[in-house]
Every structure is written in C-alpha cells, then in structure tokens.
Amino acid sequence: MSKKRAARPKSKRTERREAERDAVKLAEARIRLASLEAGGSPERPIEVTSASIVEPHAASLGCAACGGTTRVEEHAAVTLPDSSGVPRSLRVARTRCARCGVQRQIYFRLGTTLAN
User: Which of 14, 15, 79, 96 sits a CA distance of 20 to 30 A from 48?
Assistant: First the structure.
C-alpha cells in the first residue's frame, strides 16, 4: 500500500505570485471589455455636443484596468475612415492612469442632440 502525503500549505511567496498573476489577468480582461464599450474604438464613439465636454468626460471615466483616476494627456481632432470607408471626424482623448500608468484612447464624435 502506498501512503499519501498530506498536502503542504502553499508558501506566502507562491500565494503572492498567484495573486499577482490573477490581478494581471483581471486588468487585461477589463481593458478588453473597455475597448468594446462606447468610446473604446473609432467604430463606437461617445456622442458629445461640444468639444469642451471631451476632456472632462474622458477624465471622469476612470482607469479601465484598476479603476483609478485618469489624467487626459492629449485631446486631438482626427479623421478616420468608418466601417464603410467614409472618412469622419472624431475627437480622441488620450488618458493615463495616475495609479497604474495604463494608457487608453477614448473616441468621441461631436454631434447635436435634439431638444425634447
């Protein structure tokens, strides 16, 4: 008969490394999810009524990876082709997280909203 050894508890280093790997996987998944939301790509820009709203809105979104506060590093007007190849003007806010340093581009389209 073979005797089974009792499982040894994981060392603190092993537990810490597993937690770090899990945190990285979670951050990557959150970034992928943010790219599918409104503003995450040129195909899905956020509608705004004025260019002056772009920076405050981008800064208020928070970091996609850790949820920390973000800082808008650049706000630029760009012309990109849409899915049918027709060029359209968009605003791009490039943000960086103050906590983890992750950079993100958030896309906006200037438009008008109808009054009620």
Answer: 96
- Give the pTM: 0.80
- The structure tokens 């920390």 sit at 68
* Backbone φ and ψ of 113, nearest 5°: -110, 145
> Domain residues of the chain, as ranges?
14-110
Q: Pull the structure tokens for residue 65.
A: 């990876």
Residue showing tokens 């389209």: 109
* pLDDT tens figures, 48-59: 999 999 999 999
Contact 88, 115 (CB under 8 A): no
